[in-house]
Structure formats: structure tokens, C-alpha cells
Amino acid sequence: MSLPISSLTEAHLEAGILWIAKMSARDKWNLTDEDVANLLGGIDTAAYQNMKRKAAEGKPLTMTQETVERLSLLLGIWKALQLMVPANRQDLAVSWFNKSNRSSMFANKSIKEFMLEKKTIDAMYEVKEYLNYENWETSFGDSGVSSDFMSDREQPADQDRELF
Questions:
Q1: For residues 150 and 108, what is the distance between their CA atoms, to the nearest angstrom?
Q2: Contact, 111 vs 97, CB < 8 A?
Q3: Structural domain span for residue 48
């Protein structure tokens, strides 16, 4: 369930910026500050660096609705990647962001390359939708995950769902 932008608090914005800064590390998504600024809507790199500094210091942040939406999409992409892999192989969720994809949509580009080349919010929505519905084996080939990994995945015994 996502919150309307008017319901987001400073803590939400701060957490989002600190998260993308962490995910940008060389051992994760390997994004430069310029890459992140582009993914957040082509904002100025210095503006992104200022957001990181303010978030780290717990100071108020200001973002446009589009920047918040793009940050939310990146979080959704990360969530979709995590849901595709066994709990003990989260490294795959990290590496698949940078791994070339055989799907015709990506044309052998990685998720990262695809989004940075397209530069549109629509491309981010395409990636998120693709990850939510596609099969990793057909897209990435040998993933190092057996076809029965879900049977061994640790799941809570009872999962209560919200009633609609």
C-alpha cells in the first residue's frame, strides 16, 4: 500500500534518500551521484548531493512529486528483485540490476542501463511491471537458482492478509 504524496513525512523522504545512497554503493547497484540524479528525474547532481547531506544530518528535505514518485519506483524495483530470489541469495537481487537482460524489452541491456538511457519515468514503470510479471530464467539465463528454491524459502507459518 503506497501513501499519497501529501501523507509522506520528512522521515519517509529521509529514509528514501538514505536508501538510494546506500544502494548506489559500488558493491550494490554501482550508481554515481550523477546516475542517481538522472534516475530521480534529471535533477542537478549537486541538488542530490545536498539531499544526501541533509538526510544524513536529519534536516528537512524538499522534493518534487516526480522525484518522490521516481524514488518510490526504485524502491518498488528493489522489492520486485528481492521477491524473485531465495532469502539466502539476496546477492542475486543486487547483481541482477547490473546484469544484461535477454528480454526484447531490454535488448541485452541491464535494468540500470535501460533506465539511464531512457531517462523517463515511463521506463521505470516498464521495468517495475516487467519485474513483477516476468520469469527470471527467461530473462537472465542461468541465475544460479534451482527451480525448486521456493519450496525451501523460509516463510511465516501464518500470513494474515488485509480484508478488502
A1: 27
A2: yes
A3: 8-139
Low-confidence ranges of the chain (pLDDT < 70): 1-7, 135-164
Grid coordinates standing for 44?
542537478
- Flag whether 157 is in a domain: no
- SS3 assignment for 128-155: HHHHHHCCHHHHHCCCCCCCCHHHHCCC
Residue 98 lies in a domain: yes
∠ Cα 108 113 114 (to 5°): 75
Total structural domains within the chain: 1
Residue 122 within a domain? yes
List of residues 6+ apart from 109 with CB closer than 8 A = 100, 101, 117
Cβ atoms of residues 132 and 73 within 8 Å: no
Asked whether residue 62 is assigned to any structural domain, the reply reads yes
What is the tens place of the pLDDT at every residue in 113-153? Answer: 999 999 999 999 999 999 988 755 555 555 555 555 455 55
Spell out a b/e string for 1-22, using b for 16 or more CB atoms within 10 Å of the CB, else e. eeeeeeeeeeebbbebbeebbe
Beta strands in the chain (DSSP E): none
pLDDT score for 41 = 95
